[in-house]
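Q: Please design a sequence for this.
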């Protein structure tokens, strides 16, 4: 064996070792995350009747634990479905919005692969989901003359926990998912994908972490909104009353 072949073998062994370490770290992270959210999961998910949203939550939450080699397309589809369902509820179950977002998601999943271009397209779709959420925030702050009153954002007591959860989660998880997808795409190009394997466990772990919280946090916020309204401690914006009723079915 010549020197070049020996160094290549060393690199292969090192990458394989790093991949196993990455898998172990991602699995440990997921187990800790599941343990930390399990009480709320039992309260808001397991206690509910079986529904489409409940099934999506369970897939997003536990599929990564199986580490099945189905590929990232499956998880991209799950995350897209969760995002579409959230925005569908946010817009009062508007079927035109549902049709538009469903078509966008179908295109997103169809072009998804481990390439920089398809990753950029997937991130563009996630950005579209975020823009729909931010537009609803702006729309909910309009006064009787149709002018947006951004000073409302300075007083948190005027913003319902439900609306805050939609905007906060939509923003944070867009950045998180877009970041890990960009990293995976770059690693798939670097040295012909030689270092991609250590990144894919974290791609699935991120999808699991973000996907379950996109659902669970809405239920938490809906419960807080109901509690605060019953106590008379806040007067949420008009949007909160409409979205809360739809969130209970989300």
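A: Design:
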């Amino acid at each position: 064996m010549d020197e070049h072949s020996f160094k290549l073998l060393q690199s292969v062994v090192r990458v394989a070792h790093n991949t196993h370490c990455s898998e172990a770290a991602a699995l440990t992270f997921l187990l800790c995350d599941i343990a930390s959210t399990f009480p709320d999961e039992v309260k808001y998910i397991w206690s509910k009747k079986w529904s489409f949203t409940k099934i999506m939550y369970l897939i997003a939450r536990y599929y990564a634990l199986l580490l099945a080699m189905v590929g990232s397309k499956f998880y991209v589809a799950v995350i897209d479905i969760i995002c579409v369902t959230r925005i569908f509820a946010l817009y009062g179950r508007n079927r035109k919005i549902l049709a538009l977002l469903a078509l966008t998601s179908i295109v997103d999943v169809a072009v998804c692969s481990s390439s920089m271009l398809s990753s950029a397209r997937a991130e563009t779709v996630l950005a579209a989901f975020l823009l729909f959420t931010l537009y609803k925030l702006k729309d909910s702050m309009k006064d009787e003359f149709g002018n947006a009153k951004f000073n409302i954002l300075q007083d948190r007591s005027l913003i319902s926990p439900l609306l805050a959860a939609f905007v906060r989660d939509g923003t944070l998880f867009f950045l998180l998912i877009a970041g890990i997808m960009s990293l995976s795409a770059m690693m798939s190009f670097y040295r012909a994908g030689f270092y991609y394997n250590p990144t894919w466990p974290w791609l699935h772990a991120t999808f699991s972490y973000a996907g379950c919280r996109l659902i669970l946090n809405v239920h938490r916020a809906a419960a807080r909104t109901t509690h605060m309204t019953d106590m008379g401690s806040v007067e949420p914006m008009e949007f909160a009353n409409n979205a809360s009723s739809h969130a209970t079915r989300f």
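Q: Thanks. Anything notable?
A: The CA atoms of residues 59 and 119 lie 22 Å apart. Residues 231-241 have pLDDT under 50 and may be disordered.
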